[in-house]
Design brief:
It is a single chain. By secondary structure, this protein is an alpha+beta fold. The protein has a domain of 71 residues: Immunoglobulin-like, CATH 2.60.40. Strands 3-4-5 form a three-stranded antiparallel β-sheet, with no helix packed on it. A two-stranded antiparallel sheet has the order 1-2. The termini are far apart. About 6% of the residues have low confidence.
Length: 123
């Protein structure tokens, strides 16, 4: 019989102390700009195709949509949260920086009828 070992990760373990030290050191460094890919759904019905993109925290003014040579390009940027000198950031998971997504548009699509709307962080 093989005995399995379980690694405990609690407030007083050696691993926790090491992780806290690493996070403390990393917290003093600026996070580099990151490129990220928003999640999208592509939906087709009998009349339309829809591309729905999750863009929380992205201002409408920073989104650019172009159609050229059969490629629909959605790009923009999400700004990094303001950091104050009086704050210590212990964890940064939300991505920021530039993003872009490209989609092939079929020849059968009427490109004159393409339009976009943006509401509550959803394009």
């Amino acid at each position: 019989m093989h005995k399995q070992h379980c690694l405990t990760y609690g407030p007083n373990t050696e691993m926790t102390r090491w992780m806290n030290l690493i996070n403390e050191v990393r917290g003093n460094q600026e996070t580099p700009e990151q490129t990220w890919r928003p999640h999208v759904d592509i939906i087709e019905d009998e009349h339309d195709y829809r591309v729905v993109a999750d863009l929380p925290g992205v201002s409408k003014d920073s989104i650019e949509i172009t159609l050229e040579d059969g490629i629909l390009l959605v790009k923009g940027e999400r700004a990094q949260s303001e950091r104050k000198e009086s704050e210590t950031w212990h964890l940064t998971e939300r991505l920021h920086g530039q993003f872009s997504r490209r989609f092939n548009v079929r020849d059968s699509v009427n490109t004159e009828s393409i339009h976009a709307s943006y509401d509550n962080g959803v394009l």
